[in-house]
Predict the 3D structure of the following.
Amino acid sequence: MERNEFIKSLGLGIALVCTGSCLSSCGKKGDDPSPNNPSGGGGVSSGTTASVDLGTQLLTVGASVVVSGILFIRTATGNATTSFAATQATCPHQGGSLNFIQASNFIQCSLHASRYTTSGSILAQPNDGGTTSALKTYPLTLTGSTLSATA
Ligand code: FES
């Protein structure tokens, strides 16, 4: 091998090693801006509208239903928007499904038991030592017996 060929092959080898180490460092877990939230938070896409028919759904105080990723809860009697709450249906922590616990009047995650008020505030952090954030809540409109929430 000539001296020039040796130097060229040496340079190519160094370039390959540098490229490889740069690419492997790009995929490190520490680069995740939300390491405690790998599922993306469980929010609903902006602009999503979900509706329930109050003629057949949410008939009693404490009743709840999930439609298109939105958790609807009846919090009071009467068919006014103030009688209901609408929050995201999946947990901001790691995407567990959220359920309204009528007997305790809070929303609870099925995965790590974090708890929230019907207005989205945090009552209890996850039981795995992680932290969650407040739930997204959605404005409600009522047209006839159709209750709608828009994300
Ligand atoms: S996913 Fe809900 S508390 Fe962990």
Summary: The two ends are 68 Å apart (CA to CA).
